[in-house]
TetR/AcrR family transcriptional regulator (Actinomycetospora endophytica), 430 residues
Amino acid sequence: MARAESAAPPRRGRPASTVLARPDDEPTATALLAAAVQVMGANGYHGASVRDIASAAGTSPAILYHHFDSKQGLLVTMCDRGLDVLVRATEDALDLAGDDPADRLGAIVAAHVRVHMESQRESLIGNSELRALEAPGRALIVAKRDAQQRLFDRVVRDGVRRGAFTTEHPDDAARFVTAACTSIATWYRPGGALEADEIVARYRAIALDAVGYRR
Amino acid sequence: MARAESAAPPRRGRPASTVLARPDDEPTATALLAAAVQVMGANGYHGASVRDIASAAGTSPAILYHHFDSKQGLLVTMCDRGLDVLVRATEDALDLAGDDPADRLGAIVAAHVRVHMESQRESLIGNSELRALEAPGRALIVAKRDAQQRLFDRVVRDGVRRGAFTTEHPDDAARFVTAACTSIATWYRPGGALEADEIVARYRAIALDAVGYRR
DNA sequence: GAGGGTCTTGAACGAGCGTTCGACGTGGGC
DNA sequence: GCCCACGTCGAACGCTCGTTCAAGACCCTC
């Protein structure tokens, strides 16, 4: 077998970046994760073949089974790590926010929106491929997603209790907001008409309106 | 081949209902559409095999190609008709609504929410299987979806222009609202804690808050 | 009763699927 | 210098995929 370049390993220099990678991952596992994000994000779990993913990672299909249990195991790893990133970002934003309810909601909305813009494909997979998850892994992922929703529920309820938000349905309003912010991943394109910061600012303002915050 | 019952044709009595069916469709085409809604709604386009769909419809796989061009053609038909139902319901609601901006937005939100609750699987497919659509049909579907979004844009802009809504970003708020209402299809279960009417009422109220309507 | 169009069928096609396996190259420990 | 463990590979496994096809069942028309 002859390749175009002689010395360099073929996978070097490939674009293999994803927020899902962790420092102690082996390079090939990282490349597979990044490739799976690309291919599954574009075609969905069932629409992405192991050969597609391996090819995008610059390796052979067989290597996937050295680093993961199966294609399903790869999906679970992706969803699990993706939700960790999201929950972590939201919790960090809440820790840094002050005591004002509007500031707190604004902070977690901004964090949620930013993750869904910056890790667009990872977010898409985490939201639309839940149905492709099989029994053991599924419960884990659903639990983490519920935890993220409960963060929002708590902040909105707290704001209502303290009189800052006037919505009559705190939990529904919280779900309303998270769903709207999550959907950004379906349409956002870097370099579009609006700067990312501007989108964050607008969604923060609309979210505050949605919970009945009076400016 | 022997079947359990002797006289009745096997497909009679099967649950084959979908809002996508039209009066002049042949019964088998209707059954295939209903089955495709069930199977694709549960597993996605790539996760639903032609054999699965045919089996759910009580027919053979080959029959699909007598009533549709291909599996892809079936998907296009489903998405096309599903969006027709949605746009039609929204336009009808607007026609029946009065002149008051809050009434108008409330009416289209209620219609949008109701369609996504009552035709849950059809809506899920229309929203999450856009990426499985291939070139010729895709543009048609995207155009219809954009038309639905523009209905909301217009109502919100109109309300802002007339001073009823105070949001500073009408188009973003409109997209915020449609995304939140669309997502109902992902979690709503008939017979859940909330009555459908109650969900509609709450989402209408939150949507009005989101565009800055002052009660 | 014969003829023809429509609807339906089981069987088969080649292609691609997820997964497994045995062999190969390589680099650090003895 | 030997060796083993590890990451990697091409090739192949059995299976399912979307699709086609020739033939049968049905029903309306003459």
Q: What stands out?
A: The radius of gyration of chain B is 20 Å.
